[in-house]
Amino acid sequence: MPAFESFFDKGWYILGEEVNVFEKAYAAFNQTQHAIGISNGLDALHIALRTLEIGSGDEVIIPSNTYIATALAVSYAGATPVFVEPDAATYNINPEAIEAAITKHTKAIMPVHLYGQACNMTTIMAIAEKHGLHVIEDNAQAHGATWAGKITGSWGDINATSFYPGKNLGALGDAGALTTHSDALASKAAMLRNYGSQKKYYNEALGFNSRLDECQAAFLSIKLKYLMEWTQQRQAIAARYQAALSRIEAITVPYCHPDATHVYHLYVIRCAERKALQHALAEKGIGTLVHYPVPPHLQEAYQHLGYKKGAFPIAEELADTMLSLPLWPGMKEEQVDYVIAAINNFFKK
Ligand SMILES: *Cc1c(COP(=O)(O)O)cnc(C)c1O
Q1: How far is the centre of ligand 1, averaged over its atoms, from the C-alpha of 43 (Å)?
Q2: pLDDT per position as a tens digit, 263-308
Q3: Is the predicted pLDDT of residue 26 greater than 90, yes or no?
Q4: Ligand 1 atom closest to Cα of residue 163
Q5: CB 212 less than 6 A from any atom of ligand 1
């Protein structure tokens, strides 16, 4: 593998040429002035908050139906995650619910482009501007998606993404990045990810060790070239599912807002008989997953916030009915049709 050999031969393992090259390439892809390589998506979210000096006593608005990392980042920063319900059709954060949740402690909105569909960013940006709030996009699932023609990860003040192996752009281990148009935020984030240091052995802030690995950066630079092609494959597979499954009454297929594009990190259906369907598919050798079975406000880790079941009925209902079907770039039409046939068969009985 030439990428690995060249990395190894250089013997420069931390914050070297490969991270530099990837940061430039990813910034160009994401249409931002800067990309800053970070060790993983959770750290990227956390450093975004730290860069904006959000911490103790502050509130950050996040969707109630996200992956736990979004909430954990807020907690790491010492701030309080304030959950708001998603839109029941797109599963993305509901702008009306955001406005209702704003208090004098609110500092930021953290929209999550869930499953790969862009949030309603024009409305979210307008709300943020009206109330003087920061916006930090959690773009871990939506590399390359757009709202109103503008790419996700380029709307907010400073935005986080993940290159966890299973994401649309995945490394061969943990990796992530921040994206921003701001020179000041970019250099501050780069300083925080590297022990709070810009000049070696001089530390201007209580920073972190959250650097993107050179080796992962080298792999990501190669994989980034294929991302658009892989995204098209994801979209074609989703379209094939959509055409077949939208005929089945017992299933709710994903809805994509006309102003959004969807990069189908996951193809998630809803079904009241999820457990039985999942079991029937497993018997045919079809693996499915639930993203996510327990919303953050009902996790044991967040017991101290004092939410009870019923606090966020939409998120809870989604958690009870969601099912992610198999979808990966390179999945063959026959494989998609095999899944479709198995689902059809289940509902015929
Ligand atoms: C994967 C993911 C993260 C965290 O990324 P890691 O690289 O695993 O830390 C954050 N938010 C969302 C929505 C994710 O899907």
Answers
A1: 9
A2: 999 999 999 999 999 999 999 999 999 999 999 999 999 999 999 9
A3: yes
A4: 7
A5: no
Average pLDDT, the chain: 96
Is the minimum distance from the CB of 261 to ligand 1 under 6 angstroms? no
The pTM assigned to this predicted structure is 0.97
Residue with tokens 């992530």: 176
- pLDDT beyond 70 at 1: no
Closest ligand 1 atom to 176 CA: 7
Q: Is the dihedral of CA 139, 313, 60, 175 positive or negative?
A: negative
Domains and CATH numbers, the chain: 2-224 (3.40.640.10), 227-348 (3.90.1150.10)
Rg (C-alpha) for the chain, rounded Å, is 20
Contact 39 CB / ligand 1 (< 6 Å): no
Nearest CA, atom 10, ligand 1? 69
Question: Which residue out of 137, 138, 265 has the highest number of ligand 1 atoms within 8 Å of its CB and is therefore the one to mutate?
Answer: 138
Residue 45 has pLDDT above 70, yes or no: yes
Q: 59 CB less than 6 Å from ligand 1?
A: no
Tell me which long-range contacts 340-346 makes (C-beta under 8 A, separation of at least 24).
Answer: 340/240, 340/241, 340/244, 340/245, 342/280, 342/281, 342/284, 342/286, 343/245, 343/248, 343/251, 343/277, 343/281, 344/244, 344/248, 345/280, 346/276, 346/277, 346/280, 346/281
